[in-house]
Amino acid sequence: MSQQTTNLVVGKRESVVDEMLLLSPHQIPLLSLVGFGEPVYNTKHEWVEDEMFAYETILTAAVDDVATTLNVADGSIFRPKHVIQVDEEYMLVDAVDGNTVTVTRGYLGSTAAAHNQDTVVEILYNETEEGAKAREARANQRKIVENYTQIFEETIEVSGSLMAVAQYGVNDEYERQRLHKQSELALQLEKAMIAGPGINNGLKRYMKGIRNFIVSNVEDAGGQPVDMVKLNDALQKIYAAGGFKTVSNHVIMVPAKQKRAISALGEDKVRYGVGDRIEGRVVDTIISDFGEFPVILNDNLKSDEIFIIDLNRISVRPLGDRSFTHEYLGKQGDFIMGQIIGEYTLQFEQEKAHAKLVNLG
Fold this sequence. Notes:
The protein has 8 helices and 22 strands. The two termini are about 55 Å apart. The protein has about 350 residues and is an alpha+beta fold. The protein folds into 2 domains: about 1-50 and about 145-360, phage-related protein like fold, CATH 3.90.1690; about 55-125. It has helices spanning about 1-5, 15-20, 30-35, 160-165, 175-195, 210-215, 230-240, 255-265; strands at about 15, 45-50, 55-60, 70, 80-85, 90-95, 100-105, 120-125, 145-150, 150-160, 195-200, 205-210, 220, 250-255, 270, 285-290, 290-295, 305-310, 315-320, 325-330, 335-350, 355-360. The strands form 5 sheets. It has a 7-stranded mixed sheet. It has a 6-stranded antiparallel sheet with strand order 3-8-5-6-7-4, with no helix packed on it. Strands 1, 10, 19, 20 and 21 form a 5-stranded antiparallel sheet that branches.
């Protein structure tokens, strides 16, 4: 009784955030996992990030056993006096010029050898002599990342006749529609978190979603089905960028089509919930070369894509006090009206700590 009385006070704003998080996690799995974070205070929300240091890259050209320069995919991660390893050979970095690294071959008693294109080049540590001066500090330029807040709004409108008509199983038509609109808005927010374009058209703002944030670690399957090679390739890109070196909470988020494809992978690659009480199997965890990761079903993704995301680096934040609230607008004639409105943005940190697979068969 008190709930309905509060809802029907004209002009009184009532938070419905807690109710929205109680909606079916099958409908809004990402929002259910992330929840709502602390407020932001500008429609253009900015945050500052430190670029993660990678500790490995690959050769972009083969080298013989006498070459003293390496052409690599990312030379920015090296500096002089780095001890590196390529296959079984140790090398010492002497100089760095863009993506060309000058090295001393056959270092630390190893034997110089030929190395193929795409071979991993790993940074091991700095070489430091006793009594040496402090080396030049290495720090990546901090960068500003931004996203826009987006307004989500639905109106409830119930005619006087509908309120008067007795309906089976419905005690309060306004309350029924209010709950239905909350469900719609939660789904709209979930879809914006995934697919938002990140555009500001003055009074119309659209947040950027995960699909458009991830640009570094992208695996294009070219129409082929998902397999462990493709998943491991994507995970390796995260690993090489340092995405697993801090406390992370990565999950593999998949649509229904790709969920079935993952379930069909080999028995040694997937783990199923032992508490299942129904016929059939559900993949709980996928076992990769880089650890075990939960598989989360989210049919708001495209059928040909998979996200690998770190939940610790994602937050959904309201603009000021504009978290989802319901406001009863009262009688507007022979009908009553109300409104549910909220304004949110997605803070998606360190996009290199995430990956996506696209164009899957």
